[in-house]
Amino acid sequence: MASEFSIIDAYFKPLSFPQSNDSSCKSKQIGIGDDGAVITPPANQQLVVVTDTSIENVHFPAQTSAYFIGWKSLAVNLSDLAAMGATPAFYSLALSLPKHLNNKEWLTEFARGLATLANIYNIPLVGGDTTKSDILSITITANGWVKPGESILRSNAKVGDDIFVSGNLGTAGLGLKSVLNTLPKGFVLKNEASCILELNQPKPRVELGLALQGVANSMIDLSDGLLADIQHILTSSKVSAEINYNQIPLNADLKHYLSSTKDKLFPIICGDDYELCFTLPASKRKLLVSVEEFCQIKLTCIGRIVAGEKAEMKLTGLDNADSKLSLESLGFKHF
Ligand code: ADP
Ligand code: MG
Q1: Residues 137-190: pLDDT tens digits?
Q2: Residue 315, beta-bridge partner list
Q3: For ligand 1, is residue 217 a contact (CB within 6 Å)?
Q4: pTM for the full model?
Q5: Which of 43, 57, 157, 202 has the fewest CB atoms within 10 Å of its CB?
Q6: Separation of alpha carbons 42 and 1, rounded Å
Q7: Does the beta carbon of 127 sit less than 6 angstroms from any atom of ligand 1?
């Protein structure tokens, strides 16, 4: 069993130098090994700070491989930066590690998961904390840069905006059902592996977040389910929304699941999508084609923002009578 300091040296120090060609970035920064990291901010940039904790059996099934746990713990943070329209810059890691995972195999794979994603965005691990714990818990704080005033907030949705989401919804949720063996008896996923990959290895939509700077009026990333997360935009912006259920983008497995069960709300309440949801003024609609092409990602209009300070959501297109939802009960909540 490795000591705290040999864990840091062997597995985390190497992550303080991502595969960057920019040597000036290295010389300007003091990272792992002192009491604190010292970062020189680029001129004329605001710092965006996000923190997300991932706990076994709350955020991922305990049997998830160490590589995916590493990847996803960082991905959920980069997804928050993406939702702000920020460029990822550096991150720190507070790791609470149970004894049985303090071994070379687990730590190597965990660090490889972190490094693989961090290398895509060239972001160094600049510090953290390592402690013993009864359950596995990973807290990452990720930091990004944005030009002053260019971050995309939840609070700026305007009446008349169209509401868009990226990718498909509910795929990771189906992957989770598959992993937990809670799919209906006899129901077979055609693309089981890709559903499970969406769950374990979400791709933070960083490029899309950046491309939407100056284009989207408001934005949020989808972690707790579409309906619950849109509600945050409505509440912050003091507006209401109409969502057309039939426009929700779904993959073939999800369509099959919906046609074989009564679980119609599943793709919009299940969570773990890590797609972006944003609102777009009509004047920017033309720009979206080039954003879609540039980012190579499907963007789907699912509804629009309407007047109404009470932050109400009208969901149309469900079989039963159109429903005005009180969303208190929908979406993932910890307490
Ligand atoms: P201190 O006792 O001053 O809090 P630590 O002994 O906890 O410092 O950490 C020593 C160094 O290792 C610090 O630079 C800290 O940021 C870094 N560090 C500790 N744990 C981690 C981790 N899980 N990932 C990255 N860096 C870490
Ligand atoms: Mg100290």
Answers
A1: 999 999 999 999 999 999 999 999 999 999 999 999 999 999 999 999 999 999
A2: 243, 323
A3: no
A4: 0.94
A5: 43
A6: 41
A7: yes
